[in-house]
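Q: What structure does this chain adopt?
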Amino acid sequence: MLLFFDIDGTLWDYKNWIPDTTKEGIRRAKENGHKCFINSGRARSFISNKELLGLGFDGIVSAGGCMIEKDGEIIFNRLIDSEDAIRTVETVRRYGFRPILEGPHYLYMERSDFEGNMYGEKVMAEMGDRLHGIDECWGKWEINKLSCATIQCDTKSCFAELDDLYDFIIHNEYVVEMVPKGFNKGTGISKVCELLAEDINNTIAFGDSVNDVDMLEIAGKSVVMGRAPEEVKNIADYVTTYLEDDGIWNALKKFDLI
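A:
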């Protein structure tokens, strides 16, 4: 089986804590011959935590299906071309959005846009020298997607101008993810199966939020964490316990993977 795990709220909590049972469960699943993949909306450059990567995943689907690697080798990488990227940054800024451009190796943001912002400060702390300014690298960005702070902005008009380029994942009135049209965590699973000549029916997706719905719907089986919203639980083949209450371990046992 190919197993695909969301990160935030599934593998770890908001403090980046991973339960020991999750670590042991993934180790045993791999021992039993199952392939384990991260499947995240985060760009690859923002998946760098040593403890997380130390779990020994066989591959990573990142940036909402735009980039795939297997055994440390990039096997698929869909980048936004320079002309579209410039148009995008100019447009979102015109509407007052504060963008973070997300790529395989670097994130690009203006630090002054996010000083004092909890998420922005987290990004700055975690990225270190892999974080560059948007303006200092103008037009030379290597990016798969972007996220924007949108508080008190005319999001509807901005989205209408960029609708030919992106699908929009609206987290709330403050944050939106902009992923190239036609790409999501579900297409990431499909692409992995295509590239590895695997049957998609032999996949299980593990997630906890609305941005996991695409992968939960396309996978052969879907596991939803116990703290997920009801609308996400409603599409699950199995609703497991809370992350901290051995959620991943219990799901792996349920499907006889360990």
